[in-house]
Design brief:
Elements (H helix, E strand, L loop, with lengths): L5 H4 L3 H13 L8 H7 L4 H29 L1 H21 L4 H32 L6 H59 L10 H30 L1 H7 L4 H21 L12 H13 L6 H29 L6 H29 L2 H8 L1 H18 L6
Helix pairs in contact: 2-6, 2-7, 4-5, 4-6, 4-13, 5-6, 5-7, 6-13, 7-10, 7-12, 8-12, 8-13, 8-15, 9-10, 10-12, 11-12, 11-15, 13-14
């Protein structure tokens, strides 16, 4: 049988290049264990939380400027710059961990790397598929690319334990930095192609058009940002939670990584049915996620792992639907990267508040109690969705 080909999976050479970029960019060995690294060097939970808030706040400030940079000078160029910044930050975090001010600068540099990538990534993929005549497949391809990123992150976190035992923290941070550098290689040829595309990035996006797009997208992006306020701390500190429940540091990171891999596999298995998931079901996903988080303080080790796996699957599925929905709502191509950066800007506001709440409550009570309180964010997000649907049904409701 010859019904399956790789070209059907990811049509066009550009899709494969962008998928490889995303795979290497998300291969972050340190992701599930960096809190242990900081703790070993004397950082308290509050200090780690402050670094996370600094990271999120820097993203908050840099998202929109980097989005305008991408629309003006090139979205692929922004991807390359972002991967280089991330690599420099990771090496800096290892070598300057005992210098607080230098660590703060490294976290800011890491935020700059993420901000250069966040607004440009899906904009590059959408534009390349548009040029190759595959625009109609964007949602499916974006889902598969995101799966590759989840798989890479899961594999990296599983590898953290063995790498830590064999090569120490230098191996953990060194491999992550190397993968960030490797991410730039597949997309380098696209820079020249982007420069040769007539009138693609020759004009600075009009501020008026950008604000129009932002006003249009803000109410749609707000509930998704509220979910990120809960999920991001949950994922970042998942290994800490499992470590407190009895797993060794490397095993805790590996467990979180396996959860990411399993969740990504299940998302791929339902990818063919994503067309049936309409926006009416989004509040249900939010409510399920909140229900799992709210009872965190009651879980045993194995219950915590199962709860984390279930919520991770829900959120990965949720992210696929959100990506298709929000990309479809963008109306003006010339400010696509800027608008996607603005969506990330909104995310960062809520993620920063999520980290702040987690840091305060985990220090005063426990990580389990802190995560249970963060469940209020997806509950409020579900309520916003339902209220918006009720307004649509009213004769004078505004869509």
């Amino acid at each position: 049988m010859h019904s399956f080909t790789f070209s059907k999976l990811l049509p066009g050479a550009s899709s494969w290049r962008i998928a490889l970029f995303y795979f290497f960019a998300t291969f972050a060995v340190e992701r599930g264990s960096f809190t242990f690294f900081l703790n070993e060097h004397g950082y308290s939970a509050t200090q780690v939380g402050m670094l996370q808030i600094l990271f999120s706040s820097s993203l908050f400030l840099l998202e929109i400027p980097t989005g305008f940079f991408a629309d003006r000078y090139g979205r692929v160029l922004s991807l390359v710059i972002g991967s280089l910044f991330k690599a420099g930050s990771l090496l800096g975090q290892f070598f300057f961990v005992d210098h607080g001010s230098a660590m703060a600068l490294c976290f800011i540099l890491n935020a700059a790397g993420f901000s250069f990538i966040s607004g440009s990534f899906s904009a590059v993929l959408f534009r390349r598929m548009q040029e190759e005549g595959n625009e109609a497949q964007f949602g499916r391809v974006m889902s598969i690319v995101q799966f590759g990123g989840s798989l890479a992150l899961g594999m990296a976190m599983v590898a953290a334990g063995p790498v830590l035992k064999m090569n120490g923290w230098l191996g953990v941070y060194g491999i992550s930095a190397l993968c960030s550098l490797l991410a730039a290689i597949p997309v380098l040829p696209l820079i020249w192609r982007e420069k040769q595309t007539p009138h693609e990035h020759t004009e600075v996006p009009m501020l008026h058009s950008f604000w129009q797009e932002l006003k249009h997208i803000f109410p749609k992006a707000l509930p998704f940002a509220m979910v990120h306020a809960a999920m991001t701390p949950y994922f970042v500190y998942g290994s800490v939670l499992l470590n407190r429940l009895g797993l060794a540091q490397g095993d805790a990171s590996g467990a979180v990584g396996m959860v990411e891999i399993v969740g990504a596999v299940f998302v791929v298995l339902v990818i063919g049915r994503l067309g049936e998931i309409n926006m009416r079901r989004i509040p249900v996903l939010m409510f399920l996620f909140a229900s799992v988080m709210i009872f965190n303080a009651q879980y045993s080790l194995y219950q915590a792992i199962l709860a984390f796996a279930f919520s991770n699957f829900i959120v990965l599925l949720f992210e696929v639907v959100a990506s298709q929905y929000l990309n479809g709502e963008i109306r003006q191509e010339q400010v696509r990267a800027s608008t996607l950066s603005a969506i990330s800007f909104i995310d960062m506001i809520f993620i920063s508040s999520g980290f702040a709440i987690y840091g305060l409550l985990s220090e005063r009570y426990s990580p389990q109690v802190a995560l249970s309180c963060l469940a209020l964010f997806p509950l409020l997000a579900a309520l916003l969705f339902w209220l918006r649907r009720m307004n649509r049904r009213m004769p004078l409701g505004v869509r």
